Amino acid sequence: MTDRLTPEQRHRVMSRIHGKGTKPELKVRQWLWRHGYRYRLNVKSVPGKPDIVMRRYRTAIFVNGCFWHGHHVETRLIASLPAITNSSCCKIPQTNRDFWVNKIKRNQERDQKNYQILHDNGWQVIVVWECQLTPKRIEETMLRVELLLNEHFLALHQPKVVPYDVQEAPISMAAEEDSYKKR
Ligand SMILES: [Zn+2]
């Protein structure tokens, strides 16, 4: 079947469906903004082009659609055929199933690779799933995100441990007595 749309039109339609500014991502951004957090979007210089980049916290946030990124879905090979487990928020269509299984598997692999690169470069990676952003769950989800941000911020700003010069290190009497007892 040929596409009725030009590549450019197709791109615009697709990016409206799952590109920048999709609803789940917007919810995360709005929550962060309301709580005083500032961020940048789709930063190309950061590996994996995370949805939200918070340099101050050296944290990259990905807001993942449950279907495209296979939330709770395990893809694996059984007798060299791709098998997949459905989850409550990611239901693989029965029609053309192998195609979808492979697509989701590839997405998962690409995600993992990006997370690893970020992690290796000292970034904290937070993945927020679409199903965690329902009106019922968003507050709890975002409070957890906030906790992770602040924990990482503290870890980043931990005072450096300056090694003592052995000659000048003061030895307390208690420590000396202790070392005698052990002999
Ligand atoms: Zn989900």
Could you explain how this protein is built, in words?
It is a single chain. This protein is an alpha+beta fold. It has a single domain, classed as VSR Endonuclease (Endonuclease, Chain A, 3-Layer(aba) Sandwich), CATH 3.40.960. The protein has 5 helices and 6 strands; from the N terminus they run H-H-E-E-E-E-E-H-E-H-H. The chain has a 4-stranded mixed beta sheet with strand order 1-2-3-6, sandwiched between helices. It has a two-stranded antiparallel ribbon with strand order 4-5. A hairpin with a 2-residue loop joins strand 4 and strand 5. The mean pLDDT is 82. The site of zinc ion has 6 residues, from loops.
| N to C succession of SSEs | HHEEEEEHEHH
What's the average pLDDT?
82
Fourth CATH level, the homologous superfamily:
VSR Endonuclease
Query: Helix- and strand-based class?
Result: alpha+beta
CATH arch. level architecture: 3-Layer(aba) Sandwich
Q: How is the largest sheet built, in terms of strand order?
A: 1-2-3-6
Using brief descriptors, characterize the structure shown.
alpha+beta; Endonuclease, Chain A; 4-stranded mixed beta sheet; two-stranded antiparallel ribbon; 42% helix; 14% strand; binds zinc ion
Write the layout of secondary structure elements.
Layout: H1 7-18, H2 23-34, E1 40-41, E2 52-54, E3 59-64, E4 75-78, E5 81-84, H3 97-120, E6 124-129, H4 138-156, H5 173-181
Parallel strand pairs: 3-6
Antiparallel strand pairs: 1-2, 2-3, 4-5
Zinc ion (ZN) binds at residues 66, 71, 89, 129-131.
